[in-house]
Amino acid sequence: MNVKTVLILLVLALATIFALVCVLLTRGRAPSTCQHQPPEQEDTDDGQSLVFADLTPEEMVQVVRYLQGSLGVQLVDASRARPSDNCIASVDVQVPAKAEVLRFLDGGGARPPREALAVLYFGNQPDPNVTEYVVGPLPTPAYHRDITVQKYGGKVPYHRRPVTGKEYVDINALIQQELRKAPHFLTACCESNGTDLAILTTAPRGFKSGDRATWFVLFHGMAGTGYYLSPVGLEVLVEHRDLHVSRWRLRQVFYNGQYFASMGDLEDVFVANLLEVVRIEKPQAEEVLGSMTPRHPPGSPGPLQYEPQGPRYSIRDNRVTFQGWSIAFGMNPNSGPRLFDIRFHGERIVYELSLQEALALYGSNCPGGMSTRYLDGSFGIGRFAYELVRGLDCPYTATYVDRHYLAESETPKTNQNSLCIFEHDAALPLRRHFSDSQSLYYGGLRKNTLVIRAVSTLINYDYIWDFMFHGSGAVEVRVHATGYISSSFLHGRGTDYGNRVGPHTLGTMHLHHIHYKVDLDVGGQLNSLETQDMEYELVKDPWSMQNTIERPYLRRERLEREDEAAFPLNTPMPRYLSFASPKPNKWGHPRSYRIQITSFAGEHLPASSPMERSLSWGRYQLAVTRRKEEEPTSTSIYNQNDPWTPTVAFADFIDNETITNEDLVAWISVGFLHVPHAEDVPNTVTVGNGVGFFLRPYNYFNED
Asked: Mind telling me how this protein is modified after translation (predicted)?
């Protein structure tokens, strides 16, 4: 062995030892000098993203104090308010108008005043109604203005208000009072006196505007497990429209395919031996259907993600930066996650990306199931985004962020660690090539993605909301559904509406439809909508004129008006659809971002339905409209309890205005039909139950 070889081996050995020492010294999260550090991203925000920030608990408290002292009416804490009281239903940030924000962010203008949106229920006055106030400036409020008529075109009738927790408590008390009228029946059917039965609401609540009558489904309740899989066959219809709780009534009873006027009538029929009773024994804890208790000891630990030099992203206030990306994040207590001012390498791509609504529409041969059309925004998609479990909901190394809200209380609440941010190694090349032609070489790039995640639990279902930012400049939005299915009592031709998943349990078919708002600003505010797709043309071969060939060619089109840009659900849509800037790239093509949707949606509610207009956003897989400040959301929390006269009807947004070189918004629907099956017990799995869309650069750059 010559001296040169010895020296090379010695250098390699020293390098190996140095690398091992570096690894051992960098097991913590602090960066070290042993490995190359990526260049620090220039932080030019200087707190500007706070213009979008959710309210702090201190700001919420100041708004409540101001309203208590400035409205001249008695306000009762919503947690104990009766329908006949006045109360503060919620307080959230009022995001300033886009023009004001852009003057501040891009034009050096003044910071817009920070304001709150307060929703109040006025039940203690001659004309009960829901009123929305803008309160400001924060942190020390000095004014409020009623924006209800300006926002909705009129007052919001009181019957449209969402049901509060206190209202549910009073309804449950009424149901328990009524159940006591059928003691022999309850013992025979359910081994119960009624107090241990769980009660599940349905919605909407009637058949016409002004109704407030709700079917409630009863289940065997077991601590530590989901009751949703254990219906006992009993459902009750409660009339709770009156402002005085003492006047509420149980209007109808359903049991095992039959309807009765009251629990007393049901008891009389049972005692007379005229009722077919299906005896359902109360399940034992270890045998309950849908138990989450592990049946086997856990196996060996799986692989874990490791960040040798700590996270490569940075979080400051409500803004996260990562390898060229900059995103302002927040959480609407009603509609859920919302992102603003999404930039890549300093250029804004998206002004607003926000969840709007989640619909779950059921079928069944039981009244509760067949009438259910949950609009989860009225329950609180953001409010019910609870604490995430490290290592399962998100990686151990993720950064966990608290979210605060004020709803149905005068005191702010905190959902700790309810939003997580992490870098994800997809274990898939972002791009790669191995060449064995002419010369041998390999080139590749790891696919590492920044993920912003929250998980909302809406009664039985858990929705996992993901917003993912790729190194290629693409944005991926994805939702997975998991949690418990909802079920009905199996009777008659129940399997026309689902599958049997337990002794007396029908897993009821339903659809999940999710709606998003995407305010793209590609190369500036003014964009146009361009489509591209393929067709074949039959041409003669230029080199052999006696022969022909089917040649694919590209059909390009610029859509001029909103009606052209409204694509009905489950119908063919151009395969390439892009928001195009007037500015070209190096090769002369408009700098664009392409919208690519992945969805398996069920069928939209028929247009003949009296409540279809309240869900009219679901008509379209994609609709592109001109952005208007007076059209901030595609739906309203008031649509749930009055879908027959919707407070916001998305269909009205589409009025055939021109969409060429305008500030445009893409409204995107994704979803899937779910026919529950045996494998949905205990919980629906996320595998195959994910839908979403991509925003992908298309001639936006000159190269990758």
From this structure: Topaquinone (TPQ) is generated by copper-dependent autoxidation of a specific tyrosyl residue.
Its domain, for residue 608, covers: 315-698
Q: Tally the C-alpha atoms within 13 A of residue 294's C-alpha that lie toward its C-beta.
A: 4
Considering the domain architecture, whether residues 136 and 176 belong to the same structural domain is answered as no
CATH number of 177's domain: 3.10.450.40
User: Three-state SS across 441-494?
Assistant: EEEEEEEEEEEEEEEEEECCEEEEEEEEEECCCCEEEEEEEEECCCEEECCCCH
**362 part of the active site:** no
Exposure string over 40-61, b if 16+ CB within 10 A, otherwise e: ebeeebeebbebbbbbeeebbb
| Residue-wise burial string across 684-700, b where 16 or more C-beta atoms lie within 10 A, e elsewhere | beeeebbbbbbbbbbbb
- The residue from 214, 242, 272 where one domain ends is 272
Structure tokens that stand for 145 in this block: 């203005």
Residues 6+ apart with CB under 8 A from 509: 362, 363, 497, 498, 673, 674, 675, 676
What is the edge-to-edge ordering of all strands in the sheet holding 197-201? 197-201, 213-220, 231-239, 249-255, 258-260
Residue 119 lies inside a defined structural domain of this protein:
yes
Do residues 119 and 190 share a domain? Answer: no
Cα(582)–Cα(585) distance, integer angstroms: 10
Asked if residue 476 lies in contact with residue 470, where contact means CB atoms within 8 angstroms, the answer is yes
Tally helices (H) and strands (E) across the chain: 8, 33
Among the listed residues 313, 461, 698, 700, the single catalytic one is: 461
How far apart are alpha carbons 252 and 260 in whole angstroms? 6
Q: How far apart are CA 233 and CA 238, in angstroms?
A: 17
Task: State yes or no: is 461 an active-site residue.
Answer: yes
- Neighbouring CB atoms inside 10 A of 552's CB total 9
CA atoms within 13 A on the CB side of 539: 9
pLDDT bucket at 31, cuts 50 / 70 / 90 = very low
Radius of gyration of the chain (CA): 29
**Residue matched to tokens 């992945």:** 598
Q: Is residue 484 a part of any domain in this protein?
A: yes
CA dist list (Å): 50 to 3, 236, 317, 335, 484: 64, 48, 7, 20, 37
Question: Is residue 22 domain-resident?
Answer: no
Task: Please identify which residue in the block is written with the tokens 């007076």.
Answer: 630
Of 157, 186, 207, the position where a domain reaches its end is 157
**119 and 175 in one domain?**
no
Report the pLDDT value the prediction gives residue 37, as an integer from 0 to 100: 36
10 Å CB burial of residue 423 (0-12, 13-18, 19+) is buried
Instruction: Determine the angle formed by the axes of helices 263-271 and 183-190, rounding to 10 degrees.
Output: 70
pLDDT value, residue 222: 84
The residue type found at 51 is: V
Q: How many domains does the chain have?
A: 3
Beta-strand runs (E) in 78-124: 86-94, 115-122
* pLDDT single digits (tens) 329-379: 999 999 999 999 999 999 999 999 999 999 999 999 999 999 999 999 999
Per the DSSP assignment, residues forming a β-bridge with 420 are 400, 453
Cα–Cα dist 336/342, whole Å: 17
| Token pair for 28 | 């913590």
Please determine, for residue 26, whether its predicted confidence score (pLDDT) is greater than 90. no
One domain for residues 517 and 652: yes
Q: Whole-angstrom Cα distance, residue 565 to residue 556? A: 14
Residue 89 lies in a domain: yes
Do 568 and 682 lie in one domain? The reply is yes
Q: Are residues 141 and 181 in the same domain?
A: no
